[in-house]
Amino acid sequence: MIYLDNAATTRTAPEVLEAMLPYFTENYGNPSAIHSLGTAGKKAVNRARRTIAAAIGARPEEIYFTSGGSEADNWAVKAAAESRSEKGRHIITTKIEHHAVLHTCQSLEKKGFEVTYLDVDADGMVCLQALRDAIRPDTILISIMSANNEIGTIEPIAEIGELARERGILFHTDAVQVFGQLPINVEEIKADLLSASAHKLNGPKGVGMLYVRTGVRLAPFIHGGAQERAMRAGTENVPGIVGFGAAVERALRIMKEKEARERELRDYLIRRIETEIPYCRLNGHREKRLPGNVNFSFLFVEGESLLIMLDLKEICASSGSACTSGSLDPSHVLLAIGLKHEEAHGSIRFTLSEENTREELDIVVEELRRGVERMREMSPLYEDFLKSHGDGRSAV
Ligand SMILES: *Cc1c(COP(=O)(O)O)cnc(C)c1O
């Protein structure tokens, strides 16, 4: 199996699983309990909290564990909007956010909030001037992702945070794709709220966190017991949280090497696709790009069919055309960077890990080249195109 879908999820690292296991077996106590089994769980949760806080330059009491990135995004956007609704009801975000942010914003629009969805340029980059122009006296929240999960573009969040701070507007960033991959510090980017998720950095699924800067008052997300300082009730996912902490420790330890390795593999794959497959287009920013992200559109190709062909060869990738819901709508991100529907439908995303090899990528390029060729041979549109354009091999 060649796994190139690490932006969707990653393999739980063996050392992470190992760290988690005792919290299923001998240390199964409820962290709220007074007895020693309970306190063992509580200690483990707080150890993970310290590790994760230190990783982003925060204080442990600023970290709240959640069920994942989606919950953290929902909580941040909803609670920030509601807590500031006396001051104003205008929110600024972008057209390329994860649905956990976009759909939350849409739900707030139904409750009387106004949302500006900023355009991005052809590389998926937010324009700071456009952000400045969008700010109004009643703007209460700016929510902009640190890097995009589909096209890998890294946003200028330090500048965005600076601007938000100057204007006294809360700044939330969905850092799910950056946390554990690249250094990120809440002081440097002046974030008030930051979301992260364990399963994108070789931790377990179903656990994440929201960083809330001291002094930013939010309403609790789940009412009930006093867990997470009465902000997020429910018995803690102790094994998950321990796994999250272990995954962050591992990520920090290997970050430099992992980044360099992925970057090298990424550039190798991009170079080979661009030189060996005609009529393709790299989506996302060429330099300001996540180290493991490769996203291409192939003209006259159905991304979904290509994925199935690759899957038959035991290659796991993902397409930009439809999401897991089976919807046929092309990706909102690809449309936002200006792709036509047919270009968006012909897109494939490969997201690498440090464990991939050049040999694997050689197989992928070969299968991809074959698959694209076969699909184009069956396309009447491609035939017409060749007739009118000759068979030049220049990329579009
Ligand atoms: C995966 C992802 C999420 C959702 O995280 P879950 O833990 O799966 O809920 C949110 N935002 C981005 C950018 C992501 O890549």
Compile the SSE list and pairings.
Layout: E1 2-3, H1 14-20, H2 36-55, E2 63-66, H3 69-83, E3 90-94, H4 99-109, E4 114-118, H5 128-134, E5 139-143, H6 157-167, E6 170-174, E7 193-197, E8 208-212, H7 227-230, H8 238-276, E9 280-282, E10 293-298, H9 303-312, E11 315-316, E12 318-319, H10 332-336, H11 341-345, E13 347-351, H12 358-377, H13 380-389
Parallel strand pairs: 1-11, 3-4, 3-5, 5-6, 6-7
Antiparallel strand pairs: 2-8, 7-8, 9-10, 10-13, 12-13
Helix pairs in contact: 1-8, 2-8, 3-4, 8-12
This protein binds pyridoxal-5'-phosphate.
Compose a concise summary of this entry.
With 396 residues, the chain is an alpha/beta fold.
What does this structure look like?
The chain is α/β, with parallel strands linked by helices and 396 residues long. 41% of the residues lie in helices and 14% in strands. It contains 13 helices and 13 strands. β3 (90-94), α4 (99-109) and β4 form a beta-alpha-beta unit. It is globular and about 75 Å long. It starts with a strand and ends in a 7-residue tail after the last helix. The model has no long low-confidence stretch (mean pLDDT 95). Pyridoxal-5'-phosphate binds at residues 68-70, 73, 98, 100, 145, 149, 174, 176-177, 197, 199-200, 208. Residues 68-70, 73, 98, 100, 145, 149, 174, 176-177, 197, 199-200, 208 line the site of pyridoxal-5'-phosphate (PLP).
Provide the gyration radius in Å. Answer: 22 Å
Low-pLDDT segments = none
Q: Distance N terminus to C terminus?
A: 31 Å
Bound molecules: pyridoxal-5'-phosphate
What general form does the structure show? globular
Q: State the total count of DSSP E strands.
A: 13
Percent range for β-strand residues: 5-15%
- What structural class should be given to the helix and strand makeup? alpha/beta
Order of helices and strands: EHHEHEHEHEHEEEHHEEHEEHHEHH
* Spatial strand sequence of the major β-sheet: 2-8-7-6-5-3-4
Largest β sheet strand count, sense and barrel closure:
7 strands, mixed
- Helix segment count? 13
Mean pLDDT: 95
Helix content: 40-55%
